[in-house]
Amino acid sequence: MNYYSEQDIRQIVADVISRSGLSAGKEMEIPVEISARHIHLSRADKEALFGAGYILTRKRDLSQPGQYLCEERVKLVTATGEIANVAVLGPERKETQVELSLTDARILGLKPPVRLSGDLQNAADVIIVGPRGVITAEGSVIVAKAHVHMTPADAQKYGVEHGQSVSIRIGKERSVTLNDVQVRVSKDFALAVHIDYDEANAARVSGGNIVGYLRKDG
Amino acid sequence: MNYYSEQDIRQIVADVISRSGLSAGKEMEIPVEISARHIHLSRADKEALFGAGYILTRKRDLSQPGQYLCEERVKLVTATGEIANVAVLGPERKETQVELSLTDARILGLKPPVRLSGDLQNAADVIIVGPRGVITAEGSVIVAKAHVHMTPADAQKYGVEHGQSVSIRIGKERSVTLNDVQVRVSKDFALAVHIDYDEANAARVSGGNIVGYLRKDG
Asked: Is 2.40.40.20 the CATH number for A25-33+146-216?
């Protein structure tokens, strides 16, 4: 049996705490981007809205490799409201997906669920109006759940894993912590936290070069 | 050399943890209310908008004693946009004050500061249109800083003081912590955290009976 001094014990406790992943609020800087309302279209829906064989026009690349903003715009319509000039993102996807803020959803009288992109469970319905046609996009509308895109190297640097939940603190004049931000890891991603305009406004952040602070939840 | 009992060691561990800045995150429930955009009018501005000697019509009482929603509505106008049907609150105040969300401010092209009610330093300008007149309300527009109203008895219960900053966690599907919520203590207050619609939407809370969790910042 060993006998430990108080100093030994203090050292052991500090060591256990440091290995436990608990932290006294250690935060690491991370870039943050704001996503405005937008829509991804399936090939069939794109053709229904813009015409058979239509090809979307790339306007500019987005931060995530391969993703781009198109010149085309559509209008969203419900019984209670409409929102014009909604951005179309490329490339096409398997399923049409409309990403709105809750502020937008209120205008349209919709109650979409908060979901990661690609998860359309219980997603809301909306009518989409294009220059050549109108469709009812059933189960297409979500509010994007805040998430972080990163490469495997980034994940190692931040000490996090794909699917993990972290918290992100943003804003100075109005500091807000988003408590359940999902980590998405892929070699095809570029490092960025994606939030929507409600989250940005709640923290009074805008424009480019927004810095957030990532913290691993205990 | 000393030999420590289990109880001694437990005490040492608790001591190390407490010095490490770690916290078990003790939170206390607190009711939360969402404030929509509204305006408080000075007597002179009220008369300019509604006519000499006009008396505002009480529609219903608000949660804070003495405050009430009026039947009257006004329109806000700037070079870039307008918002109609803005609620007027009573009673009159010494200075006209317009409280908007940042979403509203974007519609009007304004960049108001985030301020506690009554603090109009660097507040933005807006044109207010009433049924009998139009005024330019200079230095009147703010975005309300999130705050907690409480009585001295509440303050004692929560262990906080007037002017102190606390954090408030709200939302389930989308959990957000507002990090710098100001405590306002007065015997004339009723217990409630006041947030605006941007903060509510960022946390996906709405309607009545919203529960928040107050935590004293370290």
From this structure: yes
Q: Which residues of chain B does CATH 2.40.40.20 include? A: 26-33+146-216
Among the partner-chain residues A14, A25, A178, the one whose CB lies closest to the CB of B16 is A14
Indicate where chain A has its CATH 2.40.40.20 domain(s). 25-33+146-216
Inter-chain CB proximity A177 and B180 less than 8 Å? no
**ipTM for this prediction:** 0.85
CB A147, CB A184: distance < 8 Å: yes
3-state SS record for B135-199: EEEEEEEEEECCEEEECHHHHHHHCCCCCCEEEEEECCCCCEEEEEEEEEECCCCCCEEEEEHHH
pLDDT in tens, A23-57: 556 899 999 999 999 999 999 999 999 999 999 99
Among the partner-chain residues B1, B21, B101, the one whose CB lies closest to the CB of A5 is: B1
The CATH number of domain B26-33+146-216 is 2.40.40.20:
yes
Determine the distance in angstroms separating the CA of B55 from the nearest CA of chain A, rounded to an integer: 33
Q: Is the pTM of this model over 0.95?
A: no
B107 touches A: beta carbon within 8 Å: no
Q: What is the least distance, in Å, from the CA of B87 to any CA of chain A?
A: 18
Q: For residue range A52-76, what is the model confidence (pLDDT) as tens digits?
A: 999 999 999 999 999 999 999 999 9
